[in-house]
Each structure stands twice: as structure tokens, then as C-alpha cells.
């Protein structure tokens, strides 16, 4: 038996009665789980890239286009793909693509959401998605033009909620 200290969000939390010493049962469980993951991370997915697929925070990227194309191919009843750029965490390197590459690129376990929405809603999503707050959205199935030279500080209540805030950015 022992004590384990964990720091989360700058707060120290102490967990009592955990066998935290080297070789303890908690460490053995964690080591076993890590070993199972290591073997899975090296698993090849049957595709080899001739060149890296890269991210771009300010424009459409080769990686964003690839991911949207893959999503649309796996869901042929959908017409467009809009992908949050902030969820793309790493470029795909050239060479055989592994599960680890995929996990490192998209580590959040998100699943696609399917919506039937109007063109006005699509326009608003693209306007907000190119506002500059977290990079532009990645898209497939539509073409969007935006102006990076426009002021990103909102001055007009564009969404009509009575408040001028970050959601009112316009490009």
C-alpha cells in the first residue's frame, strides 16, 4: 500500500491506499495497457503516402482535404464535410500510415455528426469557422472564399443576439 500524488490544473490531489511503489499492482496494470497500445500503434493501415500530408491554420490543407475526402467516401449520402481544424493535431508523415499516425493526428475519439442544414446555416458555419479564433475549418464539397485582411475584432452584431462578441467576427 502507498500514496500517489497527482497534479491536475495546478491542484495537488493525493490518492491514498494505491499501491504506487515501483512494481506495484497499479504500475503493472498501466504497463500492460501501454504495451497493448504500443503494439496497436505500429499496426499499418494498408496505405503508403508518397509525401507528407500537412496542416494549415489559415487555408485548406492537404491533410484537411484528405480527411474530409475520406469522411465523405465513408458516408456517400453526405454532400459536404466541414472539419474542425483545431482537432487535427499532427501532420501525416510520408511512408506507411499506421494506427499511431492516425491517433496522433486525431487523438480525441470524435465521431462524425450528420446534419441536414440550410445554405444560410452553412454560410454562418463557414463565417465562424474562418474567423481566425482557432484556424479555419477544413472543407470538402463546397468552395469558400474569405479575406484574412479584414479586422478580426467584431464591431457589428452580425448574428443578431444583441451582443457584439467573438461570434460576430466576419471575413
Features:
single chain; 171 residues; alpha+beta; globular; 4 helices; two-stranded antiparallel ribbon
Stretches where pLDDT is under 50 for at least 5 consecutive residues are none
What is the molecular shape? globular
Structural class: alpha+beta
Count helical runs: 4
Q: Report helical residue fraction.
A: 25-40%
Strand percent estimate: 15-25%
Strand order, main sheet: write it out: 1-2
Q: How confident overall, as mean pLDDT?
A: 81
Strand element count? 6
Radius of gyration using CA atoms only: 22 Å
Textual characterization of the structure:
This protein is α+β, with helices and mostly antiparallel strands and 171 residues long. 28% of the residues lie in helices and 16% in strands. It has four helices and six strands; from the N terminus they run E-E-H-E-H-E-E-H-H-E. The strands form three sheets. A two-stranded antiparallel ribbon has the order 1-2. Strand 1 and strand 2 form a beta hairpin. The longest helix is centred in the first third of the chain and has 17 residues. The radius of gyration is 22 Å and the shape is globular. The mean pLDDT is 81.
Amino acid at each position: 500500500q502507498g500514496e500517489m500524488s497527482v497534479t491536475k490544473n495546478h491542484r495537488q490531489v493525493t490518492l491514498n491506499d494505491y499501491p504506487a511503489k515501483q512494481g506495484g499492482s497499479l504500475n503493472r496494470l498501466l504497463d500492460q495497457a501501454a504495451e497493448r497500445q504500443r503494439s496497436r500503434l505500429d499496426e499499418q493501415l494498408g496505405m503508403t503516402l508518397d509525401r507528407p500530408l500537412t496542416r494549415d491554420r489559415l487555408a485548406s490543407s492537404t491533410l484537411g482535404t484528405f480527411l474530409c475526402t475520406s469522411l465523405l467516401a465513408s458516408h456517400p449520402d453526405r454532400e459536404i464535410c466541414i472539419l474542425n481544424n483545431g482537432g487535427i493535431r499532427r501532420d501525416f508523415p510520408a511512408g506507411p500510415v499506421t494506427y499511431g499516425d492516425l491517433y496522433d493526428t486525431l487523438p480525441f475519439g470524435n465521431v462524425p455528426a450528420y446534419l441536414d442544414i440550410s445554405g444560410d446555416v452553412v454560410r454562418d458555419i463557414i463565417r465562424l469557422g474562418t474567423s481566425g479564433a482557432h484556424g479555419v475549418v477544413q472543407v470538402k464539397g463546397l468552395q469558400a472564399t474569405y479575406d484574412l485582411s479584414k479586422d478580426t475584432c467584431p464591431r457589428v452584431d452580425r448574428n443578431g443576439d444583441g451582443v457584439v462578441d467573438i461570434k460576430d467576427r466576419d471575413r
